Amino acid sequence: MPEERKYWVPALEKADNVLAVLAAEPGRHKLIDLSKRLEINKSSMFSLLGTMETLQWVKRGEGDTYSLGHAFAAYGSSYAKGYDLSRSFQAEAVTARDRLQETVQLAKLEGNQVLYLGKLEALSPVRLQSEPGMLLPAHATALGKAMLARLGEDELLRLYPDDELKALTPHTIPTREALFRQLQAIREQGYAVDEQESVMGFRCVAAAIRGGEGQAIGAVSCSMLLHQWEAKGEEAKAEMQALARRLSMQR
């Protein structure tokens, strides 16, 4: 038996699986649906849901469908108060940096700009100019575009009242219309790419970190020289999405 499962509690694993389904699809599943989906017999599922309902982990609504209960609002609020994104980034990003051997960065959105919060550098003679505390236009960075893609149309129009956008390089997205088209693609694929849009000679991939309500509370990115992208680009996309999921409060 693997060491990590030596003291495993199967009932808790089943409860966790139920919570994962209800978090992703609230109010859509009855007892029988959960029983079939998770391959737990109806008697066991009845006892499990009854206990979880008493603990306010789940609640039963109209049509006898289930969703997360009030207890998780309190748990989530407490977790959010103690959540230090920068510290979590420093701990979690090491794996991605070491696998890719490239610099990994953390930023958050400040209006229509990105504010760099953290940086884990790879051992390389080439250093990125961006540093914690620096601001750059969001539309010109993968980090910024990943976070902008989580915003609604009204908020985007407020941030970008004019169609023309400031250019940092010849490759920067030139117009609001072009930016909004790219944001739709980012929503569908789950990551953003910077094609020499902020710095010539570099490509960058980023993914948004989600808060408890699905909003972007930050983003992580990996940048590399153009000639390295063909070999590492796909892996970098996967690593940044995985890192963003680990840092997200909504899993």
Automatic annotation (TrEMBL):
Pfam families assigned to the protein according to its UniProt record, in alphabetical order: HTH_IclR, IclR_C
Domain HTH iclR-type: 9-70
Positions of the IclR-ED domain: 71-251
InterPro entries, per database record: GAF-like_dom_sf, HTH_MetabolicPath_Reg, Tscrpt_reg_IclR_C, Tscrpt_reg_IclR_N, WH-like_DNA-bd_sf, WH_DNA-bd_sf
Keyword Cytoplasm: no
GO molecular function terms attached to this record: DNA binding; DNA-binding transcription factor activity
GO biological process terms on file: negative regulation of DNA-templated transcription
Gene3D superfamilies: 3.30.450.40, Winged helix-like DNA-binding domain superfamily/Winged helix DNA-binding domain
Keyword DNA damage appears in the UniProt entry: no
Protein's name according to its UniProt entry: IclR family transcriptional regulator
Source organism: Paenibacillus lycopersici
Lineage start: Bacteria, Bacillati, Bacillota, Bacilli, Bacillales
